[in-house]
Amino acid sequence: MAGKRIVSIGECMIEMSGGEDRTYRLGYAGDTLNTAWYLRALLGKGWDVDYVTALGKDRYSDDIRGFLKDNHIGTDHIGTIPERRPGLYMIHQDKGDRHFTYWRDQSAAKLLADDKSALQKAVEGASLVYFSGITLAILAPKARGRLLEAIVKARDNGAKIAFDTNLRPALWSSPRVMASVLTAAASLCDIVLPTHTDEAPLFGDKSVDDTADRYLELGVEEVVVKDGAKEALIATASERVRISPKPAEKVVDATGAGDSFNGGYLSARLNGKSIREAAEEAHRVAGVVIGHKGALVEPKFLK
Ligand SMILES: O=C(O)C(=O)C[C@H](O)[C@H](O)CO
């Protein structure tokens, strides 16, 4: 593995959470940023965590840059698209689950992979590159190709590649395109972190083992199958470990549960923990996050 540097790639949006009495809290979030945030909070000082995206020149783009810097997340490889702004999403709770409404069709982040050399530079020297199905969903087909090319290059240079398929049907032109792009991307990765309940209807998986097998057959080394409040399955070619979460004290907002699970899991693995220990840490972190509104929970609550 190269140095102690993590690069997470994707879209950070303006997040409106809460909404009771039509009162919202403004935050900044997006699946890959959320995982970067938890990696930053959980890894020691010896690690650099960089976020790669594109923002505009408006006050919210500037505020996002400041917010990331204040929280020790690197911004040096964030591109600037002057005529674009960040996307926005609102969270609402319904029937015990969180739902998102997006305003992101024209966001700056959709152009994050337009500059091929900047992208390749951004992942240089990374020990871990992290991206998601949402990162791919927001890009035009050619830009997806550029992103995957940069990722393959980073892998050839010693980076581990971690990928959460993070299905968001609303962001894709069709379920068929979503399934084929996600499968192709997963085949380039070392660690894949899917969510069984999201994947089952698309791929016909009957169990978490089916979900794991599908990715192992593609050549993925470590598959981390999340299944909400049920046990997670961590599968490699030689081992299968099932870990249940502790019952949640309170569920306020499940936004970011999977992303924080990934942050907990990957930080533990990067610190040399076993897959079992990593899954326990992942459940612990996600258990804290669902007790708070919005995707990002202050590091002090994670101790
Ligand atoms: O849905 C998205 O695109 C987001 O990134 C919003 C949320 O922060 C994320 O989905 C939570 O997992």
Number of domains: 1
Bound molecules: 2-keto-3-deoxygluconate
SSE order, as H and E?
EEEHEEHEEEHEHHEHEHHEEEHH
Within CATH, the superfamily carries the name: Ribokinase
Number of strands: 14
Distance from first to last alpha carbon = 28 Å
Quick one: CATH class? Answer: Alpha Beta
Q: Helix fraction?
A: 25-40%
SS class = alpha/beta
CATH level-3 fold name: UDP-N-acetylmuramoyl-L-alanine:D-glutamate ligase
Family: Belongs to the carbohydrate kinase PfkB family.
Pfam families: PfkB (PF00294)
Organism: Devosia riboflavina
Keywords: Kinase, Transferase
Describe this structure in words.
There is one protein chain. With about 300 residues, the chain is of the alpha/beta class. The chain has a single domain (about 5-15, about 30-85, about 105-300), classed as UDP-N-acetylmuramoyl-L-alanine:D-glutamate ligase (3-Layer(aba) Sandwich), CATH 3.40.1190. The chain is built from ten helices and 14 strands. The protein has an eight-stranded mixed beta sheet, with helices on both faces. α1 (about 30-40) crosses α9 and α9 packs antiparallel against α10 (about 275-290). The longest helix is centred in the middle third of the chain and has 16 residues, at about 140-155. The chain is globular. The model has no long low-confidence stretch (mean pLDDT about 95). It binds 2-keto-3-deoxygluconate.
